[in-house]
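Pinned message: reference record for FHA domain-containing protein
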Amino acid sequence: MTSLIDLRNGHQITLHEEEPFILGRGNPDHLEILNPHVSRKQVRISLLEDGRCFIERLAPNPSLLNGKQLPLRKEIQIFNGDIINLIPTWGSK
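Predicted structure (tokens):
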């Protein structure tokens, strides 16, 4: 089972093959994000049939993967233990 864990509260979200998961303010049923600096559809996470998982930044607002800014509209493979930040902290690049 592949899942995301919200580090704020430990809530686990199960990912399903070929059903992309959108992280952003527009998905309150799975993960409540109220920050106005987060887009309704900030990033998409996709789990493929072969078990590989990818993230794609959909909005111009910056998002980080392991402290590095994700490129806009480019799928990047993610792995167990990777950390996704929808709101960059000061000092991040």
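Pinned by admin. Summary line: The mean pLDDT is 89.
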